[in-house]
Every structure is written in structure tokens, then in C-alpha cells.
Amino acid sequence: MKYLLSVLFLIILTGTSAQSYKVTYQRSYNDKVSPQQDPLLVFTDANQTVITTHNITQSTSSYPYETFYVDRKSGGYYKLTNFSASKELATLDTTILGRDKITLTDETKTILGYRCKKAITSVNSNSIELWYTNDLNVKGAPNELGQNIGLVLEYVRNGNTKITAIHVEKLSHIPSNVALRPFENVVDALTYQDQVWKSRFIQIPIFQDEQINFNEKTTSDSVLRFANGTVIVKKIKVPELAGGHQAFVQLIEKSNGDAYDRTGSVFMIADDQAQTFLDGMKNGMNTLPMYRNGDGKEYPGMVRTEGYSPVYELMRFFTPFGVSHFNDRLTLKGKTWQDSAIYRQDISEFLSLMAGKEVYVGTYIGNYDKGGHKVSLEITIHPGASKMESPKVLPIFNTTNVMEMGGQTYATFFSQEKGLEVTFELDKDATDVQLRYITTGHGGWGGGDEFVPKENRIFLNGEPAFKFTPWRTDCGSYRLYNPVSGNFQNGLSSSDLSRSNWCPGTVTPPNYINLGSLKAGKHTIRVQIPQGEPEGTSFSFWNVSGALLYR
Q1: Separation of alpha carbons 238 and 245, rounded Å
Q2: For residue 158, how many other CB atoms are within 10 A of its CB?
Q3: Torsion 446-448-450-453 (CA) sign
Q4: From CA 263, how far away is CA 434, in angstroms rounded?
Q5: How many Cβ atoms are within 10 Å of 129's Cβ, its own excluded?
Q6: Fewest CB within a 10 Å sphere: which of 129, 132, 265, 408?
Q7: What pLDDT does 14 receive?
């Protein structure tokens, strides 16, 4: 009698069928099996379904990793991420299993000896086929789709991406190290997704809602402030990296009172020589080497010399006309102003200078406004995103007058035939040499270089290397970032106008100029631009930055 009661209790506990299955799947694309993949596993019975991988079940998977569970009694769908051996996070979705609109068809085929029917659905404009069987009297699938139609043995997306069962094994029960269990830390779906997403890459916050304004009484905190508050700098620590990473810089900008479009720059202090730009910021720009080309002026800290390096420009950006702060100044039908400008750019080529080091990163926005701007800045580093090792980087020139309010003059020297000429030295032969070149023209009146296309010519050791005319014709695309852009009688706004390689509210991407291979020793780069003549008190100038990338 006790035996019969035990059997009855087991049947009640496990459902009408105690049979469990382990299904192994492989991924393929265009019928080519993905090499060195971690096989996808589905464990399922009448009470639960678990979606995991071989490495996870063997405790050999790298962190973080994610496992999915279906509680077939309650209809709950759990997602669990293990961040480490001691840290995990879960979330519960009670609606996901009934959410998909799946159409069942009469089409059939055989997979691993089981008769399968086809179901179809669509997800984010992707056509999905699900081949499922009811021969085993259990339900399950290798992802969240089709969990309630039977046991899905093949998933096909757009006809070419497949997850296909290659083995079905009967089990007496789902192993305890795999089976659904109580979770201590269960959060809402948004919190879960946010923490899981951020765990996949390295975040290095630099500034959070920091003010960049013109204020003679700058405060002192963890952020260094220069040039009457128009430049902010902070030291950051970048972890050691084991190759194959990709890095991005992201800046969010809002007006805090300044209504105009301004030049902005995110930069890193070069420390490869004895004297740095930071020395000039602290001690006065006149303590840095001067560039002279015969126009009678001196330009401090803009070019590489023996013993001094200019800053690396990570990103050139331009603020829009008063985004956020002035959004209520002009109301137009069909236009909803953006609440901020977001700039994001790949800076992977600088990882060799950052990894495992403490570096100074700064942001400049040229303005004379007491309210100025608010900025948030971060660098993110993403593992496994690139197979290329970061190149070596040599700062050559940067004529953006980052310390404009601290004594650094505008780069007007392109009025001379010589333009910008810099000699640098390589200690070894270099291959795959590129000049990372950013250029924007300025002079904000009708005849100024901001609004007049001008050819940029690059010379290497006296020979022409590259020429192009930097020009942006897409500025009207960013009208919704510019609430107080000037409006003209002809229906155009100032922010619509084409400009010399920049638009209010955008990033100016670098040009990568191929220079081939260079021998060890000294080389000279010259930049020549036909700069326009002054008109009254107005003048034209060019902000150009150049860093040498090589291997």
C-alpha cells in the first residue's frame, strides 16, 4: 500500500507524464553549420522547459550567461542571468507565451524520425518557420517562439538562419543543476534588461550633467576646469584589455542658457613626450611651443615638436541652437523639439593608448554664456567586437583652439601659402600608415569659409597625398535639434544651411587618409587650405586635427 501511495504522489507531483527529454540543437546559416559553437540544449517535460547550452550545464561557460525557464504549471517565463558564481538576477514574464500570433499549417516533414508540422509567424519584419512535433507529448522550443504548439525541432528565420535539432534523448528526469528552481533576486523586466545589457560591456563614466560655461570663478572638484569654465577635464582609469575590443565615446549635450551653435571637442591629453597640453592649461598657453608660418602671429600648443605633443581629438561635435533650454520659445505645428543632442563615435583606434592606464579626457565647448551647456560623457568598451589589434597612434597637429578663453588663438594661418607644416619622426619603419584627419571651416557670414566650399590638400614629404572639399549638405535633417535657429523670410532656417563639414547638432567624422608605408626617420606633413580674406571684424579659420595611425 505504501508503494502505491508513493507512486501516486510521484504522478501527482510530476503530472500525467514523467517522461523528460533533452534536445540538442545546432545553429547554421545558409546550411553551413556555425563552427566551434556551444550547442543549444532544451530540457523539457510536462512541468517545465529549460533553454540553456552545453557549456552552461558543464559550468564552463564564461560570464555573464543567460538561461530561460518555462514553468508550465503557472505559464511563467523566467529569464536568469548569472553575472558570476555568486551573483544572479532573474525576471518573470507571465504574458509572453500567449503573445505570438502563430499560424498553423498542414505542411509536414520528418526531423530525426519525428513527424513535424510547420507553423509560421513574423517578428520584427522577419519571417519565421517553426517545425514542431506532437509525437513526444511534450512542449518546448529553442527560444521563446512556439513554446505552446508542441516540441519545436527546427526554427528557420528568413529561410537562411536555422536552429535545428540533431539529437533527442530520453531522460528519467531533468537534472537538478538544470531544472527550474526558486530565484532569490527577481526584478521587473526593465531593470533586468538594463542590468543584463550593461554587463556585456565596460562603462567608464566621465561627466554627468557637468556645466560648461563662461565663469571667471570656476569651482574646484573632481573635475578640472580651465579657460573660465569652458574646458573640463577628468582623469579616468581604463582596465587592461586582451585585444579584439571596440570603443565608443558618447556625449549628451543640452543648452543651459546658450542659444548658439558652438564648436565642441572631446579630447585626450597626449603624454608620449615630456611636455603636455595639460602643462599649458595649468601654467599658461604661452609656455607651450609656438607655431609660426610667416603671418606675424603665434599659435601655441597646436603642432607636434621635439618634446611636445598636442591633444588627441577623439570627437569633434557641434552644439545645436539651444536644444532643451529653449524648446518652448518657438512652437510650430508638426515639430516636436528634441530634448538633447546625442553624439556617439567609434574611437577604437585609441585603445592602445588607454588600456591599463590612467588618462586625462576633456571636453570643450566654446561659449561666452554664464549658463552655457550641460554635458554627460562616457566611454564604452565592447569585447569581441573587432578582430583587429589597435594601431599605434602619434599626435601630429590639432588647431582647434580648445583653450580659446585661455589664450589659445584661432587658426587663421591658412591664409599663407605654407598653411600648416609639421615635421615628425618615426623610431621604426611603419606599415598601414593612415592620417586620421578631422576638418571644419569657420567664418560665420555669407562670404566666410563656414559657408564657402574650400579644397583641403594634404602633402607628405612635399608630394600630394590627398585632396577633397569637406562639405555637409544634410544639415536640414537636424532641424528638430535647433529650436532657436534663425529663421529667414524664404522659409529656411540657419541650421538648414550647408556648411564646411559640419552641421549644428552633429559629429564631424574623421577622414582616414592612406599614406602607405613609411621608413624610420623624419617626415613632413603639410595641410593647405585657401582660407578666405577677413571682412571688417569677421575672419575665417579652420579647425583641423591629425593623428598618425600605423603598425
Answers
A1: 13
A2: 10
A3: positive
A4: 25
A5: 18
A6: 129
A7: 41
- Element of type H or E holding 58: none
Contact yes or no for 174/18 (Cβ under 8 A):
no
Q: How far apart are CA 402 and CA 276, in angstroms?
A: 14
444: helix, strand or coil: coil
Q: Report the distance separating Cα 346 and Cα 353, nearest Å.
A: 15
Could you tell me if 532 and 459 are in contact, meaning their C-beta atoms sit under 8 angstroms apart?
no
Cβ neighbourhood burial of 85 (10 Å; 0-12, 13-18, 19+): exposed
List, in order of start, the domains of the chain with CATH numbers. 19-190 (2.50.20), 201-550 (2.60.120.230)
pTM: 0.89
pLDDT of 314 strictly over 50: yes
- Are 236 and 359 spatial neighbours (Cβ–Cβ below 8 Å)? yes
Q: What is the pLDDT of residues 340-375, one digit of tens each?
A: 999 999 999 999 999 999 999 999 999 999 999 999
Three-state SS string over 146-200 comes to: CCCCCEEEEEEECCCEEEEEEEEEEECCCCCCCCCCCCCCEECHHHHHHHHHHHC
pLDDT exceeds 80 at position 406: yes
pLDDT score of 219: 60
Instruction: Kindly report, residue by residue over 502-513, the tens digit of the pLDDT.
Output: 999 999 999 999
For residue 448, the model assigns a pLDDT of 97
Reported as a single tens digit per residue, the pLDDT across 183-241 is 989 999 999 999 999 999 999 999 999 999 998 766 667 899 999 999 999 999 999 99
Task: Single out the residue of 466, 441, 463, 462 nearest to residue 451, CA to CA.
Answer: 441
Block residue for cell numbers 580659446:
404
Q: How confident is the model over 15-61, as pLDDT tens digits? A: 444 699 999 999 999 999 988 999 999 999 999 999 999 999 999 99
Report the C-alpha gap between 227 and 366 in whole angstroms: 10
For residue 235, the one-letter residue type is K
Cis peptide bond N-terminal to 289, omega within 30: no
DSSP helix/strand/coil, 539: coil
Cis before residue 64, ω within 30 degrees of 0?
yes
